[in-house]
Amino acid sequence: MKRPLRVVVAKPGLDGHDRGAKIIARAFRDAGFEVIYTGIFQTSEMIVRTVLEEDADILGLSILSGSHMHFAEEICGALREQAAREVLVIMGGILPPRDIPKVKEAGVAEVFGPGTPTARIVEYVREWQGAA
Amino acid sequence: MAATRMPNAVLQADQDQSDPVSPQSTDRAAWERTTLASSLDRLPRRQESFTTLSGLPIADLYTPDDVKGIDPLKDIGFPGEYPYTRGVHATMHRARPWTIRQVAGFGTAEDTNGRYKYLLDHGETGLSTDFDLPTLLGRDSDHPMGLPEIGRIGVAVDTLEDVRRLMADIPLDQVSTSYTINASAFVLIGMYEAVAKDQGVADNLITGTCQNDILKEYTAQNEYIYPPRDAVRLVVDTMEYAAKTMPRYNPVSVSGYHIREAGATAVQELAFTLGAGHCYVTEAMKRGIPADQVAPRVSFFWDIHNDFFEEICKLRAARRLWARMMRDWVGARDPRSWLMRAHSQTAGVSLTAQQPDNNIARTAIQALAAILGGTQSLHTNSKDEAYQIPSEGAIKIAVRTQQILALENRVADIIDPLAGSYYVENLTTRLEEEAEALLRQVLDRGGMVESIEDGFIQRQIADSSAAYQQALDEKREFMVGVNVHVDEDEELPFEHFELDPGMAERQIKRTRSIRRMRNQAETAAALKEVRAAAVNKENTMPAVSRAIRADATVGEICDVMREVYGEYSPPLVY
């Protein structure tokens, strides 16, 4: 039997608006994944360290403050250098549409905007797991 | 009753068109057995049960039976009189309409000052400031964690000079300004006072408000620095200090807004907000400060969500419960201590990035609820606030919405017009009772701080938030344009607000130059005094005020407190 997916849900930066992050963490937990929620005020280094230490398959970043480019580049860059295998990085929050291709170029696999049903995000992750 | 008072001719006409035998029920049970039952056979209710947005059951209708326990004099009374259900002032909006107070803040102090002038030019009557994350968390702009966030969600403030520029040409004795800041509020209150005094405004003419409600940061917004107990001590410092140095200033605006936005129900918003206000006043009393010295300047800030009647009732219930808490629970004697003065903001969380023009309608209806609920000031959200700092065009519609309500719709011309409605009075009472019961649960657990430390309040809010999300996912709750009436292939619109790219660099340069040019010995000595006051558990504000004058920065002053109090790490509840 496959082990359950391990997901780190993280809030980078100084923004404390964690309603979305907590909702997703709960939805992943209810879907049977092992969830590690970092809490708020995380630096890029702290998040990358958690992903590596927890041997996570997936990293979910929640960003609402407008600093998504900065963190996408820093975190995805560090994961590419340091992680032994592919970590799926997904992002939730409020991003201007034209920034979405840019964060994807930085290494974010998918962006889920406001109003996305949690089931769709869980489904996305399961499809990724099936394909991997 | 109404039917029998109608002219006979009209009554006759009605009867001609309806059943030959029209029963006249003498009570609700009879109506349910006869008229309702036969109607339900043909036209069943469209859903099994109805509830308010907070989950309180809603009956088919309300009748005199549902207000039996409510005493029209004792429980509803008159505006300007205990228990203030109908409003805190005798004249309410007939003397002065609510203050139009739109929150603004981005970039540097100069950028935000420009937005202030735009708002005042368009008829806004009060100001309100959002600060950026580094400022809110007591970090200077050049702190490594601050860099990606400078000026993004509010204005960057590091030094007294920044506040001087922020308030440039704004007469602080005429325009009241509110600062939305909490963990580092004690520094910003000191800076505001310094700038007002430099403008030559007399102590007793300085008006304004600071949010400075730290408890809800631990349960909702998460912009905290220190452990809750020490942070509450700082809040009480500012209350005691402002009562002496700026008697008309509101040092605390206890905020339900963030609690609601984090997913709480109206009942939870009421309980945890009034509970926080109660905590600040009683903590002051424990330090020997009489309730009547601080309670009159405690004000409140509410979220006005989508359930129109529930939100009106919430404001009415808040006034009645707070008045009772202050008079009977803590024994405040000055009637000004009993007043629940309210700022309201339409619900940011109700806005959608999808079909953003719909947000204009949402906001207008929420604004109407705030006004009918008797708010003292109001922020109406701009239609684009779901995804960006509002553009000038969008903010103008938001201001105009309030002006239309004030000048065209006549809703400012009557005091508490919904009083006496069976439903409104019944729901007001139910909200008050439910909120009081939850608040007593908190107090039985030891109080607000204890209920935060053990995660009780956070869990309550997280559960409500998850339940609401589930209801949206299952389409038991609706957001038009998001989970119903969706425009397929909608391109999300963006009249994108651009921050000046050189802004962060200019901000850092200014702060570093001020740090370099100041009298270092004086600054160091002032910071030492701040530390001594904190260590000795004296009121820290006089020392903070001197440190500000010595050009100590927000980050430096907050760092002193970090060394004394430590930093808070919360229980993770989701």
From TrEMBL, chain A:
<keyword id="KW-0170">Cobalt</keyword>
<dbReference type="GO" id="GO:0031419">
    <property type="term" value="F:cobalamin binding"/>
</dbReference>
<dbReference type="InterPro" id="IPR006158">
    <property type="entry name" value="Cobalamin-bd"/>
</dbReference>
<keyword id="KW-0413">Isomerase</keyword>
<dbReference type="GO" id="GO:0046872">
    <property type="term" value="F:metal ion binding"/>
</dbReference>
<feature type="domain" description="B12-binding">
    <location>
        <begin position="4"/>
        <end position="132"/>
    </location>
</feature>
<dbReference type="InterPro" id="IPR036724">
    <property type="entry name" value="Cobalamin-bd_sf"/>
</dbReference>
<dbReference type="Pfam" id="PF02310">
    <property type="entry name" value="B12-binding"/>
</dbReference>
<protein>
    <submittedName>
        <fullName>Methylmalonyl-CoA mutase C-terminal domain/subunit</fullName>
    </submittedName>
</protein>
<keyword id="KW-0846">Cobalamin</keyword>
<dbReference type="GO" id="GO:0016853">
    <property type="term" value="F:isomerase activity"/>
</dbReference>
<keyword id="KW-0479">Metal-binding</keyword>
<dbReference type="InterPro" id="IPR006159">
    <property type="entry name" value="Acid_CoA_mut_C"/>
</dbReference>
Automatic annotation (TrEMBL), chain B:
<keyword id="KW-0413">Isomerase</keyword>
<dbReference type="InterPro" id="IPR006098">
    <property type="entry name" value="MMCoA_mutase_a_cat"/>
</dbReference>
<protein>
    <submittedName>
        <fullName>Methylmalonyl-CoA mutase</fullName>
    </submittedName>
</protein>
<dbReference type="InterPro" id="IPR006099">
    <property type="entry name" value="MeMalonylCoA_mutase_a/b_cat"/>
</dbReference>
<feature type="region of interest" description="Disordered">
    <location>
        <begin position="1"/>
        <end position="29"/>
    </location>
</feature>
<dbReference type="InterPro" id="IPR016176">
    <property type="entry name" value="Cbl-dep_enz_cat"/>
</dbReference>
<dbReference type="GO" id="GO:0031419">
    <property type="term" value="F:cobalamin binding"/>
</dbReference>
<feature type="compositionally biased region" description="Polar residues">
    <location>
        <begin position="14"/>
        <end position="27"/>
    </location>
</feature>
<feature type="domain" description="Methylmalonyl-CoA mutase alpha/beta chain catalytic">
    <location>
        <begin position="52"/>
        <end position="567"/>
    </location>
</feature>
<dbReference type="GO" id="GO:0004494">
    <property type="term" value="F:methylmalonyl-CoA mutase activity"/>
</dbReference>
<dbReference type="Pfam" id="PF01642">
    <property type="entry name" value="MM_CoA_mutase"/>
</dbReference>
